[in-house]
Amino acid sequence: MPTTRTPCAPTSAPPATTTAPVVLSLEARLAAVEAAMTAALDEAAVAYEVRTAHIPVDPVDLDDLVTLPLTPTLRPPPQPSLTPVADLLQRAHQRLLTDGWCAGSQIREDGARCLYGVIRAEAVGDRSLEARGLEVLMDAIRADFGDEWSVPTFNDRWADARVPMRILGQAADLANEHGL
Fold it and tell me: What distance in Å separates the CA atoms of residue 150 and residue 141, rounded to the nearest whole number?
């Protein structure tokens, strides 16, 4: 027997209650965004630590980091030293700050010099002073890097002036400490 269907009466949904959206103040919105960002950054930091835990890390020598441009206006010239070799090395350091450092040659067309070239230029023909300055510089290099270096090979190893400048400053301090 065929069955007949009776159309269902449409059911009406209960009337929707409309609520006014909550309006947050600027400070409340900023606080909510800050909380969400802090949670996201904390999660990213943990994920980074987990992903990179297996990578060996060499400690960084903070003396090798330069945070400001080395210009004479930002760094005052050093105080003159009481010893001639320390004074020579301090003048050489200051000259590298102002004229620039280079590798591969004693002097470039723009006036930049290598460690050997700047000590030679600052010694102004006094070969004895030049030799003593280079000797103290080699002592500073050997103290940090070992015996298999010469001033030119040490200078030419670096791509920028950070390490050579640091060693030159250490050599000046060493000469002053030893009264040279």
Answer: 9
Per-position b or e across 101-121, b if 16+ CB within 10 A of its CB: bbbeeeebeeebbbbbbbbbb
46 and 107: one domain?
A: no
Q: How many domains does the chain have?
A: 2
Neighbours of 46 (CB within 10 A): 10
Query: Residue 97 is part of which domain span?
Result: 63-177
Q: Using one digit for the tens of pLDDT, what is the confidence trace for 129-170? A: 999 999 999 999 998 888 878 899 999 998 888 999 999 999
Residues 32 and 73 in one domain: no
The reply to whether the predicted model has a pTM over 0.85 is no
Q: Residue 113: phi, psi to the nearest 5?
A: -130, 160
> 8-47 pLDDT, tens per residue?
555 555 666 777 788 889 999 999 999 999 999 999 999 9
* Amino acid identity, position 35: A
